[in-house]
Amino acid sequence: MLRCPNCGAQLHQEGRSYRCANGHSFDISAQGYVNLLIRHSANPGDDSVSIASRDAFLQKGYYQPLAEEVRRLVQENLAAGGNFLDAGCGTGYYLSFLQELPLNFYATDIAKKAVGKCARVNRKAVCFVGNVFHLPFDDGSLDGLMSIFTPYSAEEFARVVKPGGRLIAVTPGREHLYQLKQIAYEQPYYNEEPGYLLPDFRLLSQNNVRYRIHLESGEDIANLWRMMPYYHTTSRQGNERLMALGQADTTVDFLVQLFERKNDDEEA
Ligand SMILES: [Zn+2]
Q: Per-residue pLDDT tens for 142-189?
């Protein structure tokens, strides 16, 4: 299942660490996660501020309908006992909605702080710091995987998900936060909706989860806006106009795609 990021040999849990036959060892932290990144900077991934902003925002429940839709898809598509990975788990908010399902959960993110929070919230999951472009799993060892608002690797996902396995992807929909963009931008625009491009997977379904939210405070607006890539491309005046609002209504719009891993003899 899990393999050593240094040498590729099988990893086995022994007490408070994971070890391979070649003597590489990875300790489970006090928070309950293990670091399986080989080379890493001191603190890669999201910085602490954006992790905290995102977590504070998600805990308010604004994205709960999305989390429930993801749970429905996992429940309907994964058989009991399957191995399921949250690839790019962040602080584990979406995973926390799956905990009652009879699956073996794995969760990874490149940001150590986020994985620490994820491990505290999701006690049943094996949580590790890792890179979605180089996952420490055997070929075809996963029955399913989800990738929510996070970078993805078509090749690596095809390698680790077994033929017939499922993949759930969530990306921003066309109208996501449009009303906030109207305030922040001189010329607001709708998002493109390319979704995931996965040649080794078949698209089974695709739909938008779209609804209005009422942002109750300037803090919630700021936390939401900072989560988005828009924040970095908005003018200072645009950001200030948004941050000055005490409350706001906006559409949230998520493109939710469900894929099935093709058999290896099928054409890509
Ligand atoms: Zn090793």
A: 999 999 999 999 999 999 999 999 999 999 999 999 999 999 998 999
What gap in Å lies between CA 138 and CA 57, rounded to an integer?
35
Domain range annotation of the chain: 1-30, 33-174+190-209+254-261
- Measured in Å, residue 126 CA sits from the centre of ligand 1 at 18
Q: What architecture is domain 33-174+190-209+254-261?
A: 3-Layer(aba) Sandwich (3.40)
Cα-trace Rg, the chain? 19
**Ligand 1 centroid, distance to 2 Cα (angstroms):** 11
Q: How far is the CA of 123 from the centre of ligand 1 (A)?
A: 26
Residue 146 dihedral angles phi and psi, to the nearest 5°: -125, 150
The pTM score is 0.92
The CA 1 to ligand 1 mean position distance, Å, reads 14
